[in-house]
Amino acid sequence: MAKWPQGARGALCLSFDNLGVDEATSAASALPALMERLAGHDLRATFFVEGVNAELDPGALRAIDTAGHEVAYHAWRHEQWGELSAAEQAENLARGVSAFENLGIEVNGLRPPGGQLGEGGTAVLGELGLRYASPAGEGAGSAGDVALIPFQWRHVDATSMLPGLGPVREQMTGSPDPLAPPAFLSHLLGEVERLERDGGFISIVLHLPLLAWLGEDKLATLLEKLASTRLWLPRCDEIAEHILAGPEPFERGTTLDSTSWA
After folding, report:
1. How many CB atoms are closer than 10 A to CB 80?
2. Do β-strands 10-17 and 200-207 pair in parallel, antiparallel, or remain unpaired?
């Protein structure tokens, strides 16, 4: 079994996706209240944001970074990553890394929109010095010099409503029907308790534009649960560094998932 710091039985990364790709879709207005809530519970998170936000709203990225959270990459304009050629992935990633570096923000990881690494695999990331990938899959692991910190669709808020993920909902609840926020929260709380009991790793994925759907009270309940757990709750880049510093327990630890929201 993987060994986690602080004697923790399991590890959990709290993450938020999608700051937006233009002014019309920007979810930056949700950031101040969210970061206040996270600070109130002494929680740190990883924000996977589209690179275009370095141009659209650099202040939001700096605010995330200054508050002690991680800014990671989610393609330039949320392109379906698995459909890009290796050369297109490299160009997209280089553009984003450069834009973030111009703001003084170091990018260590990628979460590919759609969940698939595609043609470039982890090689594209390694060539640009990134330390981890967060594709769809299960179990923390490594691929050479790149850590694998996957997410499972059953831990993603958007799974509650996306038509193509009905089979995942059926695994979660026994029905492919869309989930209401209380049902999704109940599922997440159960997953945290399972992790506390059985150990392992999961990443909770919430989308900034869907925080209003989840509701302030349910978000508060989730954060309170996380703040009280004995799990290790680092940023994704810290999990990556832990894996890469001692990769042996994590070898062959990841099973990738070909399921996509698209």
Report:
1. 16
2. parallel
Kindly state the average pLDDT of the residues 181-210.
97
Range of the domain at 101: 6-256
C-beta of residue 27 within 8 angstroms of C-beta of residue 56: no
CATH of the domain at 201: 3.20.20.370
Cα–Cα distance between 33 and 130 in angstroms, integer? 30
Contact assessment for residue 16 and residue 208, using Cβ atoms and an 8 Å cutoff: yes
Which residues are within 8 A (CB) of 238 and not within 5 positions of it... i.e. 6 or more apart? Answer: none
235, 44 Cβ separation under 8 angstroms: yes
In a domain, 12, yes or no: yes
Say if residue 2's pLDDT is above 70. Answer: no
In tens, the pLDDT along 198-235 reads 999 999 999 999 999 999 999 999 999 999 999 999 99
